[in-house]
Amino acid sequence: MSENLSPQLEKYLPPPVLALIIISGQEAAQLGQELYMVGGVVRDLFLGRANFDYDLVVEGNAIDLARKLAKNSRAKLTVHTRFGTSKLIYPEFSLDLATARSEIYSRPGALPTVKPGNLKDDLIRRDFSINAMALHLNPQRFGELIDLYQGRNDLEHQLIRILHPKSFIDDATRILRAIRYEQRLGFKLEAETEKLLRHDMSMLNTISGDRIRHELELILKEYEPERALRRAEALGVLSQLNPSLKGNGLLAKTFVAARQIGKRTSLSTLYLCLLIYNLNEKENEEFTSHLNFSKNSVQAMRQTLQLKAQLHNLESPGLKPSDVYRLLHGYSALAIQANALASESPIAHQYLNLYLNKLRYVKPLLNGEDLKKMGIPPGPNIGEILSILLKTRLDGEVRTRKDEEKLVNHLR
Ligand code: ATP
Ligand code: MG
């Protein structure tokens, strides 16, 4: 008798999702199809972890089923006929429906050739046993576990295991995925899997930069990405991506500190700036162009190293605030933050933080309009006076609006 997870489904799925998958199972049965919940959400049901990616696989035609479901609800439907996949988007969650498929890898690292298949085909193409379990959703078998590759047992023993010996050769992004799940869950690579991972590491060279970047970005979205990076270094994976990348204890320290200051929205980019901190500019250019990072990220990473190369200017004690401002205001906040976190010079550190916490927000009380009203003719003059006002304010030489007006009258 196979295990039945109806109790967990009822306990962990939000009620509207539970209602929807019950209906989906009924509709599938009416169409003569078999419907399953698969992948990470099944794994996380066992672990009692939240997961809002609901992946369903249909033996039959996922698009027919999705259309039928969309008709009876307020869901928005998107369809990819070529892949036999569709997505139902509800206000609070979304549901991916895919036609079961089999995959053939023509050569290492290439995207696979895909054709329709059954559930077994669809499960064996997956990355790890713990991600390759399915739950039957048709009414007669609702909640029944289908576990063809010992996923349940590996969860029990906390192991990350590939499904066949050629797995990393077919798709070397799985090397990065294995490390990510291992570190997220506090599991271990199963012995044979670790052996193959070490053996096939160079297959990362067969993967496009875009796909590697995607996996690296997934790592950086983890709760404590430094864990996976440290492990990647220890295994020699990080140096496959770039020989100078380091994931050691120092990086871990800066990552922890980054989480305390970083804005959630730009935290991943700040992590990237810290990751490349020990690269030279040439190595960084190679790394960023190979992985094809966004323009924003490239700029932040590049500026991080440009600023690092200029930090000696911040080494002298007794700089005036306006000097610090002049040296730093051309750099993006991320580049300055990265240097504040990673620089080993205590003096520079102090100035970088002074800029980040205070100086960058300083503005004169008078603006261009005020100056015009005071009779200063429009033109470059205005900009010059404003920058003098800023400088004197930074250095604490003016305080009130009156002080600024006096200075303007003196300058004109
Ligand atoms: P997460 O919690 O990280 O989102 P997930 O299991 O939902 O975990 P996804 O990246 O959303 O992971 O992928 C969904 C499923 O697709 C996985 O569970 C896995 O079965 C499969 N999968 C994803 N990437 C690969 C890959 N490179 N090779 C094989 N299977 C993959
Ligand atoms: Mg997912």
Short description:
The protein is an alpha+beta fold. Helices cover 53% and strands 11% of the residues. It is elongated and about 90 Å long.
What would you say this structure looks like, in words?
- The protein has 412 residues and is α+β, with helices and mostly antiparallel strands.
- It contains 22 helices and eleven strands.
- A seven-stranded mixed β-sheet has the order 3-4-5-2-1-8-9.
- Strand 6 and strand 7 (113-116) form a beta hairpin.
- The longest helix is centred in the first third of the chain and has 16 residues, at 15-30.
Topology:
Elements: H1 6-12, H2 15-30, E1 34-38, H3 40-47, E2 53-59, H4 62-71, E3 76-80, E4 85-89, E5 94-99, E6 101-104, E7 113-116, H5 119-124, E8 134-136, E9 145-146, H6 151-156, E10 159-160, H7 167-170, H8 173-185, E11 188-189, H9 191-200, H10 209-220, H11 225-235, H12 237-241, H13 249-261, H14 267-275, H15 281-291, H16 295-310, H17 321-328, H18 333-342, H19 346-357, H20 368-373, H21 380-394, H22 401-411
Parallel strand pairs: 2-5, 10-11
Antiparallel strand pairs: 1-2, 1-8, 3-4, 4-5, 6-7, 8-9
Helix pairs in contact: 8-10, 8-11, 11-13, 13-14, 13-18, 14-16, 14-18, 15-16, 16-18, 17-19, 18-19
The chain binds adenosine-5'-triphosphate and magnesium ion (MG).
Magnesium ion (MG) is lined by residues 40, 53.
